[in-house]
Design a protein that fits this description.
31% of the residues lie in helices and 26% in strands. The chain has 373 residues and is of the alpha/beta class.
């Protein structure tokens, strides 16, 4: 057994930290308390132990903009996944791009990275987000891989069929484009699923034992997706009171990072503040893509500027675990839970530069990163 000794241990539920030792037994936390003994003792004095971070919205395997063989998309994901784990991100939900082969490679140890939940592709209607049609060429499928099935549907029955295609190919989650991309929203060409289509999609996902995450920028799209029963709403850039009310039983994953330098950054922050003040459950997601590279450590800094450090860390640990239905296994530092932990230099909650503060990472009880590596 390994004892992580001398650190302060962060409780994301309360936002407080207390001095304690943490004993690991294999891939589990065996005990948290004072004066613990073990076969190996790791000096963590002067540091803060936090649960392994959870990113609820990543894209580890998007195609590059230049025309390259599809193997480039897969190979580029290898260093991206390795880098996430090195920065203490131990669980991620991929929101479009990664297929079941990535999970297999991680499970077999062929590549290093966080635990991975996949949604394969973003479902949507003809003309919506996920429809790879271009005026000069017609249908252009940049994913073009049998392991990433056709995401398009028109009508409730076709929406059910699209869900079944994703489940057949190994999806852990079902993703739907309840609104178009920001470009479509701005241009007034926002093609959205009907309420009947969304209801059928969510119902079929539940019948298949899956939950739904919904890309939604506009208030109308948020309301439709939340009322249909989506478990999480992603982005929510333009929330109003009606959208916030609809989020009462849904998690909000704001993904501030991608538009943090855009003209809509202030609007997005106001939407987050509105949701937080109303008591909406917030989970962290970075909308990571390899280009430009942002990850959860960037997102946490932006969340903290609106919510405070403790709330930002809660969104990336216990609240993210609840959203993903993993809270009985991770998200807190408690006996019986997974030994996913991050040791930060210093005992404060400052998230301004988490990569610079990261002293060590444990994933499944294994020490995977320190400054010398």
């Amino acid at each position: 057994m390994t004892v992580l000794a001398g650190a302060r241990v962060f409780d994301p539920e309360t936002g407080e930290s207390t001095r304690a030792d943490v004993r690991l037994d294999g891939d589990r936390i065996a005990e948290v308390g004072a004066g613990l003994d073990g076969d190996e003792r790791v000096d963590c004095s002067g540091g803060l132990l936090i649960p392994g971070l959870i990113d609820c919205h990543v894209h580890v395997a998007f195609p590059r903009p230049e025309p390259l063989p599809r193997s480039a998309r897969i190979l580029e994901a290898v260093p991206v996944l390795r880098g996430l784990l090195a920065r203490g991100i131990t669980t991620v939900r991929d929101a479009w791009g990664a297929d079941a082969g990535f999970k297999h490679a991680l499970r077999e140890g062929w590549i290093a990275g966080p635990d991975l939940l996949i949604s394969l592709r973003q479902l949507g209607p003809t003309g919506g987000l996920g429809d790879g049609w271009e005026p000069p060429a017609g249908v252009v499928d940049r994913f073009g891989d049998p392991s990433l099935p056709d995401p398009l549907f028109d009508g409730p029955d076709a929406a059910r069929a699209a869900v079944r295609r994703m489940v057949r190919a190994g999806a852990d989650w079902i993703k739907v484009g309840a609104s178009g991309a920001m470009r479509a929203v701005r241009s007034g060409a926002d093609v959205r699923p009907t309420d009947d289509e969304l209801a059928a999609l969510v119902d079929e996902a539940r019948r298949c034992g899956r939950d739904v995450l919904a890309h939604a920028h506009t208030s109308a799209a948020v309301v439709s997706a939340a009322r249909a029963g989506a478990r999480s709403i992603e982005h929510g850039t333009f929330l109003d009171d009606s959208a916030v009310a609809a989020l009462e039983n849904t998690w909000y994953v704001p993904t501030l990072s991608p538009i943090s330098d855009s003209e809509f950054a202030g609007t997005h922050r106001r939407s987050l503040r509105l949701a937080a003040d109303a008591g909406v459950r917030i989970a962290a997601g970075s909308d990571l893509a390899p280009r430009p590279h942002v990850d959860l450590t960037t997102e946490l800094r932006l969340l903290a500027a609106v919510l405070g450090e403790a709330a930002a860390l809660k969104a990336a640990t216990v609240e993210a675990a609840r959203l993903l239905r993993l809270d009985d296994d991770r998200g807190r530092i408690e006996p019986g839970l997974r030994a996913d932990l991050v040791l930060l230099d210093g005992t404060d909650l400052d998230v301004t530069d988490l990569p610079g503060r990261t002293r060590a990472v444990w994933h499944d009880g294994k020490h995977v990163s320190d400054p010398a590596q």
